[in-house]
């Protein structure tokens, strides 16, 4: 009986508590967090930075270059399999998000097509999601939609959290505050999600990558620390 229960508990463990996290105090483990730069890699770089950190003394510094090929990310395909993916990362940005479209977290999603990504980034000076397959944004980038998101404060460590679920749910928090415009899914009424909801999108992400990607000339440096990818919310 006990053995059966113990076996059951072990069997349930991986999907219930699946989590990958790092504070980078032991350095940058490039087997755990390999570089990822789909299609091309010209200019961006990643390094361990001991001059700024959210906790301890180390963080990962992503010096992103301009243009799509200046993109660079680090990340993992070890995402929880239960359908819920919670990302928590402390993020520091050197330069404010401006009117141009950029991404700083990308997630491959085969449900969108081969080499198509669910992307978190900025446009219209605010945090937003972008679905690569049809370029839909969450929220709609109308004045009303823009007002339901927020800027990313610069030169300070922000706690950024995203929940992406296979039931269609997306939730987003910045410094533990819900970002209303970046919330969608069953039972949620988001009046500024018309573009997003024109597809019946059920995320099925197979990886999570942190970094920098711009589609024009935008250049920025982002730092990441205390990253966690798990099947339930870990909080700030
Ligand atoms: C985050 O917000 C929730 C709900 O508002 C609250 O219960 C929790 O204590 C907050 N956590 C932190 C770390 O502030």
Walk me through the structure.
With 236 residues, the protein is mainly β. It has a single domain, classed as Jelly Rolls. 10% of the residues lie in helices and 37% in strands. Strands 1, 3, 4, 6, 11, 12, 13 and 15 form an 8-stranded antiparallel sheet that branches. A 7-stranded antiparallel sheet has the order 2-5-14-7-8-9-10, with no helix packed on it. The longest helix has 16 residues. The N terminus is likely disordered. It binds 2-acetamido-2-deoxy-beta-D-glucopyranose. The site of 2-acetamido-2-deoxy-beta-D-glucopyranose (NAG) has 3 residues, from loops.
Percent helix, as a range, is: 10-25%
Q: Tell me the Rg in angstroms.
A: 18 Å
Global morphology: globular
Low-confidence segments: 1-11
Give the strand tally. Answer: 15
Ligand set: 2-acetamido-2-deoxy-beta-D-glucopyranose
| Largest sheet entry | 8 strands, antiparallel
> What do we call the CATH topology?
Jelly Rolls
- How many helices? The count is 3
CATH architecture: Sandwich
CATH class: Mainly Beta
Roughly what fraction of the amino acids lie in strands?
A: 35-45%
SSE-based structural type:
mainly beta
Q: Calculate the mean pLDDT score and round it.
A: 93
CA-CA gap between termini? 39 Å
Q: How do the SSEs run, as a string of H and E?
A: HEEEEEEEEEEHEEEHEE
Number of domains: 1
């Amino acid at each position: 009986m006990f053995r059966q229960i113990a076996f059951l508990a072990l069997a349930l463990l991986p999907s219930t508590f699946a989590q990958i996290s790092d504070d980078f105090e032991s350095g940058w483990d490039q087997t755990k967090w390999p570089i990822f730069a789909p299609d091309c890699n010209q200019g961006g770089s990643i390094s361990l930075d001991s001059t700024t950190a959210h906790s301890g003394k180390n963080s990962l510094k992503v010096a992103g270059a301009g243009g799509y090929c200046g993109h660079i990310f680090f990340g993992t395909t070890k995402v929880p399999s239960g359908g819920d993916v919670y990302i928590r990362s402390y993020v520091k940005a050197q330069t404010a998000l401006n009117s141009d479209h950029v991404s700083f977290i990308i997630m491959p999603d085969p449900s969108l097509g081969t080499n198509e990504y669910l992307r978190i980034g900025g446009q219209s000076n605010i945090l937003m999601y972008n679905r690569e397959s049809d370029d839909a944004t969450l929220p709609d980038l109308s004045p009303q939609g823009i007002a339901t998101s927020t800027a990313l404060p610069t030169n300070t460590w922000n706690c950024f959290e995203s929940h992406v679920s296979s039931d269609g749910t997306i939730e987003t928090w910045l410094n533990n505050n819900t970002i209303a415009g970046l919330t969608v899914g069953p039972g949620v009424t988001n009046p500024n999600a018309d573009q997003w909801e024109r597809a019946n999108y059920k995320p099925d992400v197979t990886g999570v990558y942190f970094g920098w990607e711009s589609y024009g000339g935008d250049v920025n440096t982002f730092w990441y620390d205390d990253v966690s990818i798990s099947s339930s919310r870990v909080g700030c």
